């Protein structure tokens, strides 16, 4: 019989629509405006009296508090009105002082029964939800200097193996300088080093006492180091951001030495900067013996005990670059520690160094690159200059009891939070060069709310225009198409929520475009039905022929658009990807609703009935 579906097909359509309805529902519960309080030391230490005082202060300022919730290492205060967020943040900041970080946030309000089904609202992009935008600059000079220091250490090791005497070594700019007892030692060292390090230009230097050797790295090698530095920093930053669990972050290169990082939904800028901008690394060094020459040692203080120090060897056994995995844990006394696994090369170097130095102390050195700004007068104008500096501190100094291999642990950490952040930094990889914050911009949730409101208005206007056109043009069949259009929008929202896709302003544009394109298939079908009716075909045959003959054209038109959307997604970034995602999903859902849902409704209304005329 024409225009009849089997029962299983009706049930399939019903199940898909019900699932779509359930998983689109969380988007009807907008996030609550909130203020998040955390400590700049990682551990939140607010007592009950302080919390009550904050609530009283907010109430006195006529700021309506919806609820106060404790979270790991933070306190979340939900508000009823978004326009009171900034006032609440400022008031709390004044009350608590500089020891706490007070940030704007958006707290999800999805009902528990939906959360139990793993239903959650769509992730919102930076332009809709707010977040932070960082512009970072890679210190290329520091990247070259770090590589030269590693090369200098390797050169000294080679000279010691061959028992070639040298007095000192120094890195200055792009040059390594070494002094020797006489010209004979200098010439022997030059032959040895030049074979292992061909990327240097070598120059003999005459000294009043002894002989010198100057080694300048080539321009090609400097360019290679700089390219490696920014590419490695990009990889490391992406790993760190992925560890933070931020939805749809943007990490991309800008120009020769800058990187853009955008983190949607992150309002705690202090925490974001602490993870993204951390240039920390580790070095494992042996403690110097009493008879070690001064030029081969370096005195460092302990990170947690500034008044205590130790003399360490300048040569590094391994650095954080050799760490393959790291995770936080606790020792037998319940104190925080970091469990470390090394890669093959790192494990070999560690085993070689500890096997021959049992009973000697080994230090774990924490290195962090920082900057401070100072205002200077240039040409009669005040100019802010950034001065980089490096802090080195000993985390732990322990006696080597036996030869170490690929796995060991670091103790002596202040808190579980510090251990967690250190393990995250080691896991994601160390930065090949220091990075500095050139620009920092926070997009508040209030601006995102305005964008959402305008985006929803555009969707509503577009939907209304399409609905009116279909009703006027196709009457009863237009009403069926409009119901399918509502289902299409529901399925699109549900699909984006289930897949964790991020909605951005360009994504809303893609939804508006999808609404217009969603009725294209119905227009083709309904016009074909009209043609068949005008040619004298019966109602049931015309409906059947309309759907059958328009099918190929609908598939061809939507597949070509889908291919374009896939190409946009594969080569585009940021906003372009957001547009491509909504367009692709919209095409798939519109094909389902246009070909199956409308056909099912038409079959239920008109199928199997002896009709002589229909409203189309």
Keywords:
Alpha-Beta Plaits, 616 residues, Hypothetical Protein, Haloacid Dehalogenase-like Hydrolase, Chain: A, domain 2, 4-stranded antiparallel sheet, 16 helices, alpha+beta, 4 domains, Multidrug efflux transporter AcrB transmembrane fold
Secondary-structure map:
Layout lengths: L6 H18 L7 E8 L8 H13 L4 E7 L2 E6 L5 H12 L3 E8 L4 H4 L7 E2 L1 H4 L1 E8 L1 H22 L4 E7 L2 E6 L2 H14 L3 E7 L4 E7 L1 H26 L5 E5 L3 E7 L4 H8 L4 E6 L10 E5 L7 E5 L4 E2 L3 E8 L5 E7 L1 H12 L5 E18 L2 E19 L7 E4 L5 H13 L6 E9 L1 H55 L2 E2 L1 H14 L1 H15 L4 H33 L3 H32 L10
Parallel strand pairs: 5-23
Antiparallel strand pairs: 1-3, 1-4, 2-3, 6-12, 6-22, 7-8, 8-10, 9-10, 11-12, 13-16, 13-19, 14-15, 17-18, 18-21, 19-20
Helix pairs in contact: 1-12, 6-8, 8-11, 12-13, 12-16, 13-16, 14-15, 15-16
Keywords: Cell membrane, Membrane, Protein transport, Translocation, Transmembrane, Transmembrane helix, Transport
Family: Belongs to the SecD/SecF family. SecD subfamily.
GO cellular component, one term: plasma membrane
């Amino acid at each position: 019989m024409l225009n009849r579906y089997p029962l299983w097909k009706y049930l399939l359509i019903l199940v898909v629509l019900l699932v779509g309805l359930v998983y689109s529902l969380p988007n009807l519960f907008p996030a609550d405006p909130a203020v998040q309080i955390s400590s700049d030391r990682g551990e939140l230490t607010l007592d009950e009296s302080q919390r009550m005082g904050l609530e009283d202060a907010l109430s006195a300022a006529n700021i309506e508090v919806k609820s106060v919730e404790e979270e790991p290492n933070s306190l979340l205060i939900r508000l009823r009105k978004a326009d009171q967020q900034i006032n609440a943040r400022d008031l709390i900041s004044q009350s608590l002082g500089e020891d706490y970080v007070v940030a704007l946030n958006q707290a999800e309000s999805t009902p528990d029964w939906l959360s139990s089904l793993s239903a959650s609202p769509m992730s919102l992009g930076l332009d809709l939800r707010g977040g932070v935008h960082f512009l970072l600059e890679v210190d290329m000079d520091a990247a070259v200097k770090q590589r030269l220091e590693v090369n200098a250490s390797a050169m000294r090791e080679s000279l010691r193996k061959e028992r070639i005497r040298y007095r000192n070594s120094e890195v200055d700019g792009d040059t390594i300088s070494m002094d020797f007892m006489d010209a004979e030692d200098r010439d022997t060292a030059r032959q040895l080093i030049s074979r292992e390090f061909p990327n240097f230009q070598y120059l003999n230097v005459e000294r009043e006492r002894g002989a010198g050797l100057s080694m300048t790295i080539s321009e090609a090698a400097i360019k290679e180091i700089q390219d490696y530095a920014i590419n490695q920093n990009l990889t490391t930053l992406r790993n760190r951001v992925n560890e933070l669990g931020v939805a749809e972050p943007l990490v991309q290169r800008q120009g020769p030495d800058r990187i853009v990082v955008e983190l949607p939904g992150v309002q705690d800028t202090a925490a974001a900067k602490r993870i993204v901008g951390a240039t920390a690394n580790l070095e494992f060094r042996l403690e110097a013996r009493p008879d070690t020459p001064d030029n081969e040692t370096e005195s460092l203080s302990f990170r947690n005990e500034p008044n205590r120090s130790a003399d360490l060897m300048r040569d590094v056994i391994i650095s954080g670059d050799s760490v393959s995995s790291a995770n936080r844990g606790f020792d037998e006394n319940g104190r925080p520690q970091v469990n470390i696994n090394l890669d093959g090369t790192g494990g070999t170097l560690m085993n070689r160094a500890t096997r021959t130095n049992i009973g000697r102390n080994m230090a774990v050195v924490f290195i962090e690159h920082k900057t401070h700004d100072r205002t200077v007068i240039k040409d009669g104008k005040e100019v802010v200059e950034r001065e980089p500096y490096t802090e080195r501190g000993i985390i732990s100094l322990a006696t080597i009891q036996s030869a170490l291999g690929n796995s060991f642990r670091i103790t002596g950490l202040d808190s579980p939070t510090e251990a967690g952040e250190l393990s995250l930094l080691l896991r994601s990889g160390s930065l090949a060069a220091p990075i500095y914050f050139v620009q920092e911009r926070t997009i508040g949730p209030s601006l995102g709310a305005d964008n959402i409101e305008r985006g929803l208005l555009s969707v509503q206007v577009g939907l209304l225009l399409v609905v009116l056109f279909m009703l006027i043009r196709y009457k009863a069949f237009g009403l069926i198409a409009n119901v399918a259009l509502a289902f299409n929008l529901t399925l699109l929202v549900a699909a984006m929520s289930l897949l964790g896709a991020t909605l951005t302003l360009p994504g809303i544009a893609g939804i508006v475009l999808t609404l217009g394109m969603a009725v294209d298939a119905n227009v083709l079908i309904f016009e074909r039905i009209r043609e068949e009716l005008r040619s004298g075909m019966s109602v049931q045959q015309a409906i059947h022929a309309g759907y059958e003959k328009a099918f190929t054209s609908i598939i061809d038109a939507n597949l070509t658009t889908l291919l374009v959307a896939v190409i946009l997604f594969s080569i585009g970034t940021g906003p372009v990807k957001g547009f491509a995602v909504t367009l692709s999903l919209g095409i798939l859902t519109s094909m389902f609703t246009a070909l199956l849902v409308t056909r099912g409704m038409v079959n239920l209304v008109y199928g199997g009935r002896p009709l002589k005329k229909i409203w189309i």
